[in-house]
Write a structure and sequence with these properties.
heterodimer; A: 181 residues; alpha/beta; Glutaredoxin; six-stranded mixed sheet; two-stranded antiparallel sheet; 8 strands; B: 191 residues; alpha+beta; Immunoglobulin-like; 2 domains; six-stranded antiparallel sheet; four-stranded antiparallel sheet; 10 strands
Chain lengths: 181, 191
């Protein structure tokens, strides 16, 4: 009887500790939801990159869509934190001419996929491989994560340095407004 | 009953140790040089100005080694970086106007009383390229513009021994006007 009580007590203590430690870690990264427009739109530099399935993607093929282009790496904590919100954004705007691309910086497909498959939701947008980081260089990325929003004319109109919560209403509103232009 | 209490206490102690070790591993494995939002105890020093926030925390040589090993750097370069005083540096635009900063204008003042230049991203990239290293991240960008809402956490490096103290003289520019600040008593991580 005493053993059973001890066992239940232990289970309860372990559960409380697990939850509290989990919360302590989860609260460490706080994503921003602010998106500020560039003073002057910049024509997006075209590129062709393969994705994790070795399919080739040409950026200019997306002309006519609003494109969210995210530069990231698995080693970058805020990149990991914001990744699920990119997929939630894609799903939220799936019936609109909006595309999401995530461009990984220099990591191999195996490492990337093992990370992505653990996410909820699992991203369904293309994960492109910028192995030699030439595309990030031509897009003048200075730190990770950096995300651009490209309008339907192919111009970069927003640039966000640092982690964001992309499905936040403020960012969704920015994209919906671009679709009306 | 007393035995039961001892057993519970030992189990809790073991679990806390195990969990803390696990958490430390998670943090180490995440190689979180891009640190998180400043929270109590997470940053050694921070300063908030109108629209411009800066926060600093020392990174231990072991974590530097772990991070660059994970990025495939050659051992000599890893040791070269780890020999520096490396400070995790977070910059955030909390205002309504863009700002820029120029790391080449930042200085640090240590025990010798002189003002020294930081070893900045361009200096590291030049050395990395000479050794065929393509990696372009981890070091704080040298001269970027931060739009409202932008933030980043990267490394800044100082030619100082591990455990040394220094004051950081930093600069940023809003609306064409240069602003300066000093964070005193920054401590490099011990070995």
């Amino acid at each position: 009887m005493t053993n059973r009580i001890q066992s239940k007590l232990l289970t309860l203590i372990l559960l409380v500790l697990c939850v509290s430690m989990g919360n302590a870690y989860a609260q460490e990264i706080e994503l921003s939801h602010r998106a500020s427009p560039l003073k002057t739109p910049i024509p997006a530099v075209d590129f062709s990159l393969i994705d994790t399935e070795e399919m080739m993607h040409k950026f200019s093929d997306l002309r006519g869509k609003v494109v969210v282009v995210n530069f990231w790496a698995v080693w970058c904590p805020p990149c990991r934190e914001e990744m699920p919100s990119l997929e939630r954004l894609r799903r939220k705007l799936a019936d609109k001419p909006v595309a999401v691309l995530a461009i990984n910086q220099g990591e191999d497909a195996e490492r990337i996929l093992s990370y992505l498959w653990g996410l909820d939701p699992v991203p369904e947008f293309p994960i492109l491989l910028d192995q030699d980081m030439k595309v990030s260089s031509s897009w003048k990325v200075t730190g990770l994560p950096t995300t651009f929003i490209v309008n339907q004319q192919g111009d970069i109109v927003y640039r966000m340095i640092g982690g964001r919560e992309f499905d936040h209403p403020e960012i969704v509103k920015v994209i919906e407004k671009l679709l009306e232009e | 009953m007393a035995e039961g209490i001892i057993l519970i206490r030992k189990t809790i102690q073991s679990f806390v140790l195990f969990t803390l070790t696990g958490l430390a591993t998670v943090l180490a494995e995440s190689e979180s040089l891009q640190q998180d939002k400043p929270t109590a105890g997470a940053w050694q020093l921070s300063a908030k100005h109108e629209g411009f926030n800066i926060a600093l925390t020392a990174i231990t040589p072991d974590r530097i080694r772990a991070f660059f090993t994970g990025r495939g750097f050659p051992p000599e370069m890893i040791e070269a970086i780890a020999s520096y005083c490396v400070i995790g540096t977070r910059i955030e635009n909390t205002g309504t106007l863009p700002f820029s900063y120029d790391l080449s204008k930042w200085r640090y003042q240590a025990a010798d009383g002189k003002l020294h230049k930081l070893k900045i991203k361009a200096d590291w990239i030049k050395e990395w390229r000479e050794q065929g290293i393509k990696f372009a991240y981890s070091q704080l960008a040298g001269n970027p513009t931060f739009l409202p809402g932008d933030w980043i956490s990267s490394m800044t490096t100082y030619k100082l021994p591990h455990g040394a103290d220094f004051d950081l003289h930093y600069q940023w520019n809003i609306n064409g006007k240069d602003n300066t600040g000093i964070l005193k008593g920054v401590k490099c991580a011990d070995d």
